[in-house]
Amino acid sequence: MEKLNKERAAWIYKKMNDIRNFENEVHEIFATGSIPGFVHLYAGEEAVAVGVCAHLTDNDYITSTHRGHGHCIAKGCDLNQMMAEIYGKETGLCKGKGGSMHIADIDKGMLGANGMVGGGFPIAIGAGLRNQYLKTKDVAVCFFGDGAANEGTFHESINMASIWKLPVVFVNENNSFGEATPQWYASGSKRIADRGPAYGIPSETVDGKDLMAVYEAAGKAIERARNGEGPTLIECLTYRNYGHFEGDEQKYKASSGDENTFAKRDCIKEFRQYAVDKKLLSAAGANKIEKSSTEDIEHAIKFAEESEVPKPETLYQDVFAD
Amino acid sequence: MEKLNKERAAWIYKKMNDIRNFENEVHEIFATGSIPGFVHLYAGEEAVAVGVCAHLTDNDYITSTHRGHGHCIAKGCDLNQMMAEIYGKETGLCKGKGGSMHIADIDKGMLGANGMVGGGFPIAIGAGLRNQYLKTKDVAVCFFGDGAANEGTFHESINMASIWKLPVVFVNENNSFGEATPQWYASGSKRIADRGPAYGIPSETVDGKDLMAVYEAAGKAIERARNGEGPTLIECLTYRNYGHFEGDEQKYKASSGDENTFAKRDCIKEFRQYAVDKKLLSAAGANKIEKSSTEDIEHAIKFAEESEVPKPETLYQDVFAD
Amino acid sequence: MARRIAFMKAINEALDQAMAKDDKVILLGEDIAGGAKVKQLEKENEDAWGGVFGVTKGLMPKYGRKRVIDTPISEMGYMGAAVGAAATGLRPVPELMFNDFIGFSLDTILAQGSKMRYMFGGKARIPMTVRTTHGAGASAAAQHSGSYYGLFGSIPGVKVVVPSNPYDAKGLLLSAIEDDNIVVFSEDKTLYGLKGEVPEDYYKVEIGKAKIKREGKDLTIVTIGKMLYVALDVADQLAKDGIETEVIDLLTVAPWDQETVIESVKKTGRLIVIDEAHPHNNTAKDIAAVVGDKAFDYLDGPIKTVCAPNTPVPFATNLEQLYLPSPKRVLETAAELIDDLKK
Amino acid sequence: MARRIAFMKAINEALDQAMAKDDKVILLGEDIAGGAKVKQLEKENEDAWGGVFGVTKGLMPKYGRKRVIDTPISEMGYMGAAVGAAATGLRPVPELMFNDFIGFSLDTILAQGSKMRYMFGGKARIPMTVRTTHGAGASAAAQHSGSYYGLFGSIPGVKVVVPSNPYDAKGLLLSAIEDDNIVVFSEDKTLYGLKGEVPEDYYKVEIGKAKIKREGKDLTIVTIGKMLYVALDVADQLAKDGIETEVIDLLTVAPWDQETVIESVKKTGRLIVIDEAHPHNNTAKDIAAVVGDKAFDYLDGPIKTVCAPNTPVPFATNLEQLYLPSPKRVLETAAELIDDLKK
Ligand SMILES: Cc1ncc(C[n+]2csc(CCOP(=O)(O)OP(=O)(O)O)c2C)c(N)n1
Ligand SMILES: Cc1ncc(C[n+]2csc(CCOP(=O)(O)OP(=O)(O)O)c2C)c(N)n1
Ligand SMILES: [Mg+2]
Ligand SMILES: [Mg+2]
Questions:
Q1: Does the C-beta of B246 come closer than 6 Å to ligand 2?
Q2: Sign of torsion, CA A188 A236 D107 D183?
Q3: Ligand 1 pocket check for A66: Cβ under 6 Å
Q4: Phi, psi of B184 (to 5 degrees)
Q5: Does residue C340 register a pLDDT over 70?
Q6: Which fold has domain D211-342?
Q7: Which of A11, B4, B19, C141, CA to CA, is 20 to 30 A from B252?
Q8: Which H helix or E strand runs over B168?
Q9: Which Gene Ontology BP annotations are present (chains A, B) (predicted)?
């Protein structure tokens, strides 16, 4: 695994800011009513998507979740098209027909946000199988929540990845809640990573607010996968800044104590500090990135707002490939 | 847990013989064409069903599998009605409408063989939930195969049993194969019991050819469950005497080596030896039991053969309860 | 009975009354209470959500977590547990948050719950009501907007009801919970805010009976769920041209009320069925086919269905509106029949 | 083309030829080879089973375990893996041993594979063929005898084919595998031994086209799968009374061939559809409804369907035979139409 260099650090910092800004803006816009449907924001969890995707190329695949904007951005999807998609515009990544929960870009190796909790597991297995069968060195990363870990697809898929030694990395985003249900209620194991041994695969729990912790764990796992050594399970402890979806009162979140202390941590600020300390970023460079990120998101909003809604005839298109 | 006494030992020996005789006869009759459909024989695995059910009353529930005759007999279902059911006769336990794969007797707490591999897990959870909710001391035992352990229902159900501390005992019958697929290929964990920790529940592997090993492990687990201490996972290593279903060539079975040595063990003979040694059974008593078992099965066959097929109008009955 | 309450409140009230009446009734589902084992909520005996739409709000505080059970995200697990609990004497009401999630739990209904009684020679009873939601119109996109009541209705041993208003919602839900069979109670999520008169007492609306919402002699329109409002709108418009439309709210999708529908068609000679489900192998087609068999001699024109197009549900609002059967499309369809009528 | 081979052999040959032609084609399923990691079999490069019915026998020895993949008993897992592999460029052919197991894996088709292309704005292709089995008549009882091709066919984005004979089985399977969409290829397990003429070369039968198996001017009977043989028997019997029956083998259940069916009904004026699926919301009803709309003016009598009764499939052989649509039941139905004809 490569050590983090300046270029990659800048890339990381930009992506983290893009996600945060994107989500904060969507949060605001949703409140105005311009964005329809269900929207699940990734703000607060940036270190996970970015720390993992920092190791991937367009040839690698990821499967995502209903909380998919962060994965999309980290995997390199176009911000303008993403925003337009969430607005339901014809210029959207999915021509406005998918929306927030189905945002996808197969060309970038992004196999889709997924409205079905646990829906991504088997798809990641399929991508891993393809990578192995075609003798590529590409990997498939499966992002999933703590709640998703209780779906049967988790079990079936990790077991298959194990017996076939597939190049799949399972990245759990344990943000303590599945909707309004705490992980400590819903899960028979204290940690999601406790489940790795049930499949004979390596697993570990890392601080998911710490970009470098995620980066290093993911780097090792992805290297193992590329080398044909099989799957890994990484549990990243994190927290979301907003509610489960927009409109959630979040009564289940603690307002003090350990949980709250953890909640208040800002993975972006922490990474900035680290990178500046380690001279991977200059303060000026970091500021510049922050500014360009703000501009990019503003532009994306403008792009989305100025775009047209899909033409009526598109309702009937793209059901079948011919 | 009660120590095994003479009365129980006689009960156990009778049930083991009943299962073996029942299955051996069904094997013969199937070859003649008198029994239609798919038939999966339990012969060879008697120690598991009997060792577990020796601790149960009619108020306890079990869920079973496609290989369900043994569980049925051990749980106290009527041999005549069972045989009639397998023949598809109106006197059958299910009036001839279920057959071998759906043999059931709710009055005896037998919630059905199940044609769906993994179909029994959630049903056992429901029975456990009911036992707990009604503040009974009753348990639910879920029998399942090594192959079934790879279904998502295994995962979802054991997790639920764990978080709710349900009085459910999961009894895995690891006979090394799911159809023609070895457990050592299909499972990412070496042992099924390795999966217990993933749910924070106690689990162990026992010699499933040894009635007493099963009896003791089950006794402990059932006691825990009755005391409100939650679920247990017991893996019983066993082997089936026949093929997956009738008609199977069994090319996947080893003809020598450890597997074959294990295959050749006879759990009934071993238990007889043990019981006679421990003076739980006399040789004469054992012989008498063997004889009465043979007679009972003969009688069951006669009963089944002499019974009528279901009346045509029953086709339309019992779809809905009113 | 002047009290008007919302559709979702009527459902909440039915659950409340069913639970008060029979302590065998338990609810299971994801976040139907919410916040299990969260300290501050435990202290206040509060539910965090009361369901993703708030339909079950307040029931946990009233009946406790032993009866209002938050489940892990394990649809096959808890739906199957409901089957098991029903088979052993409870009267569970599991909630499948969106009917689209049936892909994660179909076996519990298709192969287990619906078949047990038959396979077991009549010994089992499965008194279980699956509450679920269906319907497009909420911008919930392809995986959260489907209408699968017809799919459930195709399974022998399953009853399916789809209420269109608060009154019927409450009464049908109480009937469903008392029923000793699997009943799928499918709620249109876009109707939750709809208000209507609802008696405060415990009452039942019969499963299997359709209701004539408007009488007419020229044309029968049969509707499922909120399609009723499309039909009533169309009927108003047709009335201006002197066409008298009979509008039938199906209410029960399986087994649907052949008698009421066929009697109506015998009178009017013309039928349109509106169903927002995908267009093939759905309830509308089933009705059309049965009418084309049993009332053929009374028909004065082709049997029409107005359904969704054969596409997934699109996200963009304008496309989604186009996707749903609309008064415009029904009027166009009616025009084909009515031209004939005018001749 | 005098070579006659069994239905199952025709399927095996199609798989073999598809794999030989395109190395993106892989097979996945439970024991489609069998005996993975069993020493004595590895040594001999042998498959233990080649599928539970032996349909895929010999393919693993020929193409290896990388292409003929035995899976754990994890239907959601490997069916979803097939979707993922298809979306990323392979051409998987998963086998769902019995279509009844769809309860364990519906999401992969209902919400994932069938909707991806649409949800993703046209970017995805899902070239995947699900082989599965359906049908009563093998005493396999309620959980292994269902006919769910109509359920699959109700899902937008899914094509469904049901061959009735070896020739069409081979040609349709080759078409399905070349198709860039999800195609469910549903095999009647009771037909596996049926022999028929099958060319040795690679050929395709078009998806979406029905075949007229017998021409007639008095009555149209449309059939799905093995119901063809019921219809042909009935046609023979009716011929004795001078009734000329047109028999149409649907072959593709979704999208079914409206043109062929409607043209026939326009000629005969009478229709019976035979479908062994559960009676509600099935393909037979869909056909009846469409005909009742689009060919209404040509109909000389009610539109009839002959399906299974609304019950699970019973185990006892005598009941199972009664369950299946029979020539007797079809003749009785035909009699209703023909009385009319004779007038
Ligand atoms: C199959 C399925 N079940 C339930 C839901 C409803 N649902 C949407 S998100 C969610 C919680 C997911 O929790 P988690 O996996 O922890 O992800 P997070 O939201 O915390 O990122 C639930 C239950 C769904 N969309 N799909
Ligand atoms: C859901 C489902 N998948 C697959 C099958 C086909 N099948 C029947 S038995 C069986 C093997 C089960 O193996 P195991 O659980 O080890 O039980 P055993 O037969 O060894 O007792 C399979 C795959 C099925 N009946 N149901
Ligand atoms: Mg979470
Ligand atoms: Mg086994």
A1: no
A2: negative
A3: yes
A4: -70, -15
A5: no
A6: Rossmann fold (3.40.50)
A7: B19
A8: strand B168-174
A9: pyruvate decarboxylation to acetyl-CoA
